[in-house]
Specification:
about 425 residues; 4 domains; Poly(a)-polymerase, middle domain; four-stranded antiparallel β-sheet
Length: about 425
């Protein structure tokens, strides 16, 4: 297993942190000093913890003195970065800035200087404390965290964004530290059950105490990882049942038969989708999608809502879905393995009970002149809106609710 991990890391481990980061940091701190803004810029995120992968963005925390606790930190930071080129304002709990410099994407995040999570004025204020905790506990486990990230990326379960509902880098760092390495973590994960609790800082004396004291909204996920710097926060709150299950089964399979394939994300292929649908004897319902512009999490959230909306429409139209998925890379695709290709032109429409009030009976008969009585109910046969997959696919492209979520959608069926 060690040889496998060494091979994987050799392909993905980054080199020495680029000097450009230090140059950028010095320039930013000089500007803050010149403008007499009491704040210090420091490297944050995975780069600061040494758990970043070969391809990475660099978080910069701009830590403001508590004298600014009632001020708009985003506005103060905006003044400091006014002279930088290639910058974008991104909206979050506080506005922050993305700057492309020397080939590196820097994300500048304004935070208030705090000593404990209880002093935070904004959720981002706690982020430097996460870095501090990880760096004081990680010892020599940075490469183990990298393996965990690569493993989860390959399974499609890495990221706490709302369209992924997976594992954040911080959650994986806590798990690796908790179990003392990637392999021990996998062994533990393979035995996880719903409402698994990880409390590495031992804030709670028992499971019952945790479940009784933590906010119920933070206990909805199948995995509860108590944030070691914030006892009332579940660091794994974003994880849903599907991603939790994928994590467990992938861990079991890797332990059973180790392979580098577990660290390589499967490539998306339209030709492979067509081939698989033919093999399975189903039809491929396929859409090419152009997403709206905006922040990745917002765009991704709209895409997943559009995907789920179409899923529900397929089911409502009474087609059956054997499998489904979506791909977001250079291009976006929604795909569904569907059967049958054609439905009867008419569908059963269930009406009121024969014992219902007369006005209900009259209204149904007026709308559906032909009907039968079955199991004490009136049942009419009405023409379907879509009885072929091709007609359904065309209808999706003209759906107003879809157009609210994506810029353009085109059927490839």
């Amino acid at each position: 297993m060690d040889r496998l991990f060494t091979r994987v890391l050799a392909q993905h481990k980054p080199g020495v942190i680029k000097e450009e980061i230090n140059v950028f940091l010095r320039r930013l701190n000089t500007i803050l000093t010149e403008r007499k803004i009491e704040a210090t810029a420091m490297v944050g995120g995975s780069v600061a913890k040494g758990t970043h992968l070969y391809s990475y963005d660099c978080d910069i925390f701009v830590v403001f003195s508590r004298k600014y606790q009632d001020d708009d930190l985003s506005l103060l930071l905006a003044k400091a970065v006014a002279g930088f080129r290639n910058k974008k304002v991104l909206h979050g709990s506080r506005d922050y800035f993305q700057i492309l410099h020397a080939g590196i994407i820097f994300e500048l995040i304004p935070v208030l200087q705090i000593k404990s999570a209880a002093d935070a004025r904004n959720v981002t204020d706690v982020s430097p404390l996460h870095v501090e905790w990880v760096n004081s506990h990680i010892k020599n486990l940075q490469d183990n965290v990298r393996l965990a990230k690569l493993f989860c990326k390959a399974q499609g379960i890495y990221g706490a964004e709302s369209y992924i509902n997976g594992f954040s880098g911080y959650t994986l760092e806590i798990l690796v530290i908790m179990y003392g390495g990637f392999l021990p973590m996998l062994k533990a994960v393979s035995s996880f059950h719903p409402k698994q609790i990880i409390d590495i800082a031992h804030y709670y004396a028992s499971r019952e105490e945790l479940l009784g004291r933590m906010n119920a909204a933070k206990l909805q996920s199948p995995l509860i990882v108590v944030d070691p710097v914030q006892s009332d926060r579940n660091a794994a709150a974003a994880v849903n049942e599907e991603q939790f299950s994928k994590f467990i089964i992938a861990a079991k399979l890797l332990l059973q038969k180790p392979s580098p394939d577990f660290f390589i994300k499967k490539s998306f292929s339209l030709s492979q989708l067509h081939h698989q649908s033919k093999t399975l004897g189903v039809s491929l319902l396929l859409f090419s999608v152009i997403p709206v512009d905006g922040k990745e999490d917002v765009v991704g959230s709209k895409l997943i809502k559009a995907f789920e909306y179409i899923t529900n429409k397929v089911k409502t139209a009474e087609f059956h879905i054997l499998n489904k998925g979506w791909q977001w890379g250079k291009e976006v695709y929604f795909w569904y393995f569907v059967y049958p290709k054609e439905l009867p032109r008419y569908e059963r429409h269930i009406g009121p009970l024969v014992y219902s009030a007369n006005h209900h009976i009259v209204a149904f008969i007026k709308k559906h002149k032909s009907f039968i009585v079955e199991n004490n109910r009136l049942i009419a046969f009405r023409r379907r809106k879509y009885n072929t997959l091709a007609a359904f696919a065309k209808g999706v492209g003209n759906d107003a609710s879809i157009k609210e979520k994506v810029k353009k959608i085109k059927s490839l069926t």
